[in-house]
Amino acid sequence: MLHTPHAPTSRPRASSRRLRAAALLASAVSVCLVAASAPPAPLGVGDRLFPHLGNPGYDVAAYDLSFTYSGKNDEPLKAVTTIDARTTADLNRFNLDFAHGKVDSVEVDGAPASFTPAGEDLVVTPVDALEEGERMRITVRHSSDPVPPKGREGGWVRTADGLAMANQADAAHLVFPCNDHPSDKALFTIRVTAPDGHTAVASGVPADVDRAGGTTTWTYRTRHPMATELAQVSVGRSAVLHRTGPHRLPVRDVVPAKHRAALEPWLTKTPGQITWMESKVGRYPFETYGLLVADTVTGFQLETQTLSLFEKDLFTGRAYPRWYVESIMVHELAHQWFGNSVSPHRWSDLWLNEGHATWYEALYAQEKADKPLRARMKAAYGASDGWRAAGGPPAAPKPPEPGSKIGIFRSNIYDGAALVLYALRQEIGSPAFERVERAWVTRHRDATATTADFVRLASEIAGRDLGGFLHPWLYGEKTPPMPGHPDWKPSTAGGARAE
Fold it and tell me: Taking a C-beta distance cutoff of 8 angstroms, is the pair 195, 214 a contact?
């Protein structure tokens, strides 16, 4: 996720178990949930890196998003967001994350509710208080502005012919009201209405197409829960290309129609890459997969669920060799298991996403292009102390700098985290390591998981407590000695490069 390509000669670099009951939250936060007299304020679920992301007091089951696109990607879209949720506390009011659009109305269970902004939250007060365990339906009529707010990153991405989404890590709420934290995954229905001549595609599988009055409305539904940061919507003058993957998996790619021929040789590689990943970790976890190739410049590729976002120039430019581009494709594909199906319970668990995606990217390059994994890991070891100093250890990354929320995507959670996996394989052996990988994506499928869960699983499969071994690798200021490689030394000249 948020995977920024670099020249392959300089490679170290930078994608549910539902939120625990509200009783686990600090009592002060619980008081804020029910105290109608307290002034509206942004809340959060206690994420160390993003304190105001997510909201306590409810658990989202499903989103229904409707967008109406005018045909101009610098004009706000008309939108309706419907959220089905269950309360986890008594609520006089509750917060939604929403920061970049005009709210026209809010209803709770069909009755008008009052609302007011607070920071990047929308504070909603229903007519009647809600009791713990109640189902509620929240309907917000609002605009969704594709022009980014000053000093903010993410949300809608404007392309040469329309729009796409890049919501990681904290930008879904620039697009629609939500509980914008990966710990609260939900099912999605997404509807997009656009003028004739445009095509809309979204995460999930197609459910309906309705043409009327010079416009078309496309409807997509997910069959597996999805974190808000992984939602994808594309609208533009696109070609949608279909092929079949392993065990008849539908593979669909969305590309600018005028670049279809140039991109086709790359797109044909996806079914074989899925087969390769399945040989490593088991069956693909979702209902479909494909590439969304956007004619835009973002500086990254992104593993949005079932439809990974790629810059067109990654494929049509000449900056990178073929083997490298293919390994980047595998990186985003690997995220469908690591990060999407098994999502981080908090953002400090991000290394589980990026370390695994980097691991399989590097393993693919070794097997398909003769680029030795060992050499890459030795180089990462040399740089690791510098990465830890600059960005924190893999499982305890430093918070992003103000104005740069994607600043958590540093080398320490890419190659630095893959180095942790290499150390684990060295310690327990390849057969046990491969059992850990398969068990991880099976046991936590469609859920969230923590670093502690990974250490516990590795210990279970290895038959011994690995906490003492893994803790310095995950949390230490300095890189521990590499098992089997006593000659590997940190580089005194190593530095870290933010990704």
Answer: yes
